[in-house]
Amino acid sequence: MPCYRCGARQTDPVRGASPWKRGVRRETQVLICPDCQRLHDLDLEACGTCGSTSLICRLGEVECRACGSVRQARADAFVGSDAMAGSGAPPGLSAEVEAALNRVLGRA
Questions:
Q1: Could you give the 3-state DSSP secondary structure of residue 74?
Q2: Helix (H, G, I), strand (E, B) or coil at 103
Q3: Taking a C-beta distance cutoff of 8 angstroms, is the pair 50, 64 a contact?
Q4: CB 52 within 8 A of CB 65
Q5: Half-sphere exposure of 81 toward its Cβ, with a 13 Å CA cutoff?
Q6: N or C, where is the chain less crowded by C-beta within 10 Å?
């Protein structure tokens, strides 16, 4: 998954903690590269309980890594093409994934 702001791809990590951060934007989990983390306006969602932006989104729930608060993801955030248009996915990503699957599965 690339950085949602600049599209940089995460490379194989060296030993230790990854410098990349996770966040939630428009009810979708995103990655933030180390360079983009320096920006002040990341446009990430914040926890309604403690205000932290250390959120993860999985299986229709958004969980705060700071305080453990869990809430249901808002279904209205997924309606319409605007939600996907701002996802930051670089063009051609689906074709790139399909090609990788074809290589791994031995498809012609």
A1: coil
A2: helix
A3: yes
A4: yes
A5: 0
A6: C
Distances 101 to 10, 28, 54, 93, 106 between C-alpha atoms, Å: 19, 23, 31, 12, 8
Q: How confident is the model at residue 85 (pLDDT cuts 50, 70, 90)?
A: very low
Tokens representing 56 are 């993860």
Which ranges of the chain does DSSP label H, i.e. alpha helix? 34-37, 82-85, 93-105
Exposure on the CB side of residue 31, measured as CA atoms within 13 A: 15
Residue with tokens 């309980």: 49
Band of pLDDT at residue 11, cut at 50, 70 and 90: confident
Residue 18 identity (one-letter amino acid): S
Q: What is the pTM of this model?
A: 0.62
Question: Which helix (H) or strand (E) element contains residue 71?
Answer: strand 70-72
As a whole number of angstroms, the distance between CA 39 and CA 73 comes to: 26
